[in-house]
Amino acid sequence: MQVNTSAARLNTHARQVFSVLISFALLLGVSGCGSGGSQPSPRTLSSLAITPANPSLVVGNSQQLTATGTYSDGGTSNLTSSVTWSSSDSNITTVSASGLATSVAIGTAMITATSGSISTHTNLTVNPSLVSIAVTPAGQSILVNGTQQFTATGTYSDGSQQDITGNVTWSSSDSTLATVNSAGLGTGVSAGNVMIQATSGNISGSTSLTVNPILVSLTVTADDFIIDINTTSQFTALGIFSDGSAQEYTQLVSWSAPGSVASIDNAGLATGLAIGTVTVTATYGSISGSADLQVTAPTLLSILVTPESASVPLGISHSFTATGVFSNGDTEDLAAAVWSSSDSTKVSLDSSGSAQTLAQGTVTISATYGSVTGTTTFIVLPAALVSIALNPPTPSIALGTTVQLTAVGTFTDGSTQTLSPVLWNSDDPTVAFVAVNGTGLVSGNAIG
Q1: Most buried of 21, 113, 414, 444 (most Cβ within 10 A)?
Q2: Can you tell me the mean pLDDT for 365-372?
Q3: What is the predicted pLDDT for the residue at 436?
């Protein structure tokens, strides 16, 4: 009995709702018939927009532009194919009826889209095209686990260059030997040679990279391990690697020679400074190698006796000098040299090297220091005339008489001798006359 009552109530409510809907529909119909037939205003184009805005292209590339119209009712529509497209400078950029802009030359052109009285524009910039990529540094070598930063430099059609390291795609020809990340940082993986390449579009550039094995030890050698003071010895560092190979490391290591016995430069050239022994060390990172260098006093190699091949008249002394030539290239006056003559009857020598001539002839002069001797030839010439005296020295004669003069010569050995023939001369023949080629007989011609 309760179920039947509920069903009756639902039927009644449904009939009420249906009645309301019918009445509302009739009301709308009557209202429409009495309105006089007015229509809504048509929508009109308010503005145009070009996308993408202010694009950039390289020479020879194209960009599809889109024209979007906005209407008075706020609605939008793609009008790309219905607008009129134009370029302010077709020598820089052309644009097709479908809005495809194609770059022709470097510069900036204004692209305009027009529909009726509505237009808009955007600037399109044409940049030079990339023509080549240079990867630097070229031909580098790194160790396993070592790194090398590479740079990509782009050269463009206008001759300009730009660092494009972060804008290229980096790759390695063999990633088992070396890898390279997006920033151009190469890392050695194992020993070998690879090519590192930078690519942008269809343009690429590359360089070689050598990955060397890990250094495990340094062997230090030298031209001479024993040198004199002020002489040099070239040290060499040889790197031994994990694969058993070896490499010259002389220019790559840091050299040291502590103390004052020797110095060593960055190229491994050691110079002896004082007598003693020093340990020379080559260091590369945590790896080092060393060798001992002994510095000794220089040894005498030879003695130069100067002057060479001298000759003097008998009775004249002559001094000689002994100069020592040492193993380090230095020279020194050997004041302590022992002097000797091959014939002491002709020449005698004192301890200072002063020679006294005793007789005419040729002798050998020797200077000895330790086990080293130097020699030179010394010639004693005949005694030389050094002065002439007249005898009697200050004669006085009567007018009209004569006096016999004699010329007496004194020689370098102290001896004297009457000289004949000699050339005679009077400074005033009118007072005293002597024949030039005569015997020295002087005639008194006038008082004076």
Answers
A1: 113
A2: 96
A3: 80
- Residue 11's pLDDT is what? 36
First-to-last CA distance in the chain?
204
Work out the number of other CB atoms within 10 angstroms of the CB of residue 72. 12
Residue 323: band (very low, low, confident or very high) from pLDDT cuts 50, 70, 90? very high
Taking CA atoms, 104 is separated from 135, 182, 200, in Å, by 29, 32, 21
Contact (Cβ atoms closer than 8 angstroms) between residue 191 and residue 255 = no
The encoded tokens of residue 258 equal: 């502590």
Residue 210's nearest CA partner among 199, 223, 225, 194 is: 194
φ, ψ for residue 352 (rounded to 5)?
-95, -5
Residues 135-147 pLDDT 10s: 999 999 998 999 9
Beta-carbon neighbour count of residue 11 at 10 Å? 9
Whether 326 has a pLDDT exceeding 80, the answer reads yes
For residue 227, the model assigns a pLDDT of 94
Judged on CB neighbours under 10 Å (0-12, 13-18, 19+), 289 is buried
- Going across the sheet that includes 140-143, the strands are 140-143, 203-212, 192-200, 169-172
Q: Which two tokens stand for residue 31?
A: 């209202």
> For every residue of 83-145, which 3-state class applies, written as one string?
CEEEECCCCCEEECCCCEEEECCCEEEEEEEEECCEEEEEEEEEECCEEEEEEECCCEEEECC
Distances in whole angstroms, Cα of residue 173 to Cα of each of 207, 327, 386: 11, 57, 97
pTM, two decimals, is: 0.45
Select from 229, 225, 234, 233 the least CA-distant residue to 298: 229
| Tens digit of each residue's pLDDT (9 = 90 or more) over 247-303 | 999 999 999 999 999 999 999 999 999 999 999 999 999 999 999 999 999 999 999
User: Residue 29: in which H helix or E strand, if any?
Assistant: helix 2-33
> CA 239, CA 287: separation in Å to the nearest integer?
9
- What pLDDT was estimated at residue 21? 32
Question: What is the rounded CA–CA span in Å between residue 67 and residue 83?
Answer: 7
